[in-house]
Amino acid sequence: MSAPPERRFDASGTGPRAGAGGPVGTDTVLRDLSGHGNDLRVTRLHDSEPEILTWSGEHHGDQPAHASLRFDGGKAPDRGAVLTTSATAPLNSEKFTRGYTIETFIKLPDPFEGDHAWMGILSWEGRNGDAGKTTGWSPDEPTCSLNVTPERFLQFVVYPHVQDADPTSWSHALPVGRWTHIAVVNDGHHTVVYVDGSKIARNPSQPSTGIATLGKPFVIGGTQFEEKFSQGFYGWIGDTRIVKRALRPQDFMNHLPASER
Questions:
Q1: Taking the CB of residue 93, how many other CB atoms lie within 10 A of it?
Q2: For residue 77, is the peptide bond before it cis, meaning its omega torsion is within 30 degrees of 0?
Q3: Concatenated DSSP letters of 146-159
Q4: Please, what is the average pLDDT of the chain?
Q5: Distance of CA 60 to CAs 4, 73, 94, 107, Å?
Q6: Is the CB of residue 260 less than 8 Å from the CB of residue 33?
Q7: Coil, strand or helix: which one is 51?
Q8: Fewest beta carbons within 10 Å, which of 2, 25, 93, 138?
């Protein structure tokens, strides 16, 4: 059986000459390692300083790439950096009606300082109202996003391609000071979020088929509202992968054989 179409991004190849802690330059490109044309480009938000995004040798022990990016986003003033696909990337318009798996590795700082409520980990740009959705908290929310609440819960909210709905998953509080693997799995009917390989308790029972993407960029490091970024992510982000089908937990990146890491 051939491998399912996937997109995978990591920090390999982006390390500055200064090594760990050195800034990752604006317009640096992170390649789509699957070769499907979904490369990511670095943008700094609100004229943020170079140190807002730096290269790090830190990584989850089971992560394929032994590197990550350190984001230092926050509020008051809003600051951050994001990685976005180009305006023509195939991922921008992918509907995922047969299912999907979205995985990433993150680490929150210890101490977890400042106000980072509702910071985004990853998302697609665009208003759900422009996709004809009417059920959500606001029509200005994006059609799909993974975020961190004021209590450090994970929130995954998606506006499906098929249903007029906004099924949302909520995790327990994420730990600080250690790496966490997150997987969002949709089988074409329902969505289940896993944290470190275990299902979270609050997954929605609502049907959910596909993602109502609008042809706008996929983003790592932030979530828009009203099609504008405010704060960026605060912490480390490692390998991130998107697959066009539901994967089993034993097929997640934190279970890859050593030869594939």
A1: 12
A2: yes
A3: EEE-TTSEEEEEE-
A4: 93
A5: 24, 21, 29, 9
A6: no
A7: helix
A8: 2
Q: Return d(Cα 144, Cα 161) in angstroms, integer.
A: 11
What pLDDT shows up at residue 259? 47
Write the burial class of residue 258 (CB in 10 Å: 0-12 exposed, 13-18 middle, 19+ buried). Answer: exposed
Taking alpha carbons only, the member of 235, 237, 217, 236 closest to residue 227 is 217
Q: Which of 154, 150, 162, 134 is nearest to 203 (CA)?
A: 154
DSSP assignment letter at 169: E
Phi, psi of 169 (to 5 degrees): -105, 145
Tell me the per-residue pLDDT of 73-132, one tens digit each, with 9 for 90 and over. 999 999 999 999 999 999 999 999 999 999 999 999 999 999 999 999 999 999 999 999
The two structure tokens encoding residue 62: 């089971």
**Is the pTM value of this prediction over 0.85?**
yes
CA distance 4 to 98: 12
How many CB atoms neighbour CB 21 within 10 A? 12
Per-residue DSSP letters for 231-251?
S--EEEEEEEEEESSPPPGGG
Across the chain, which distance is largest between two alpha carbons, in Å?
51
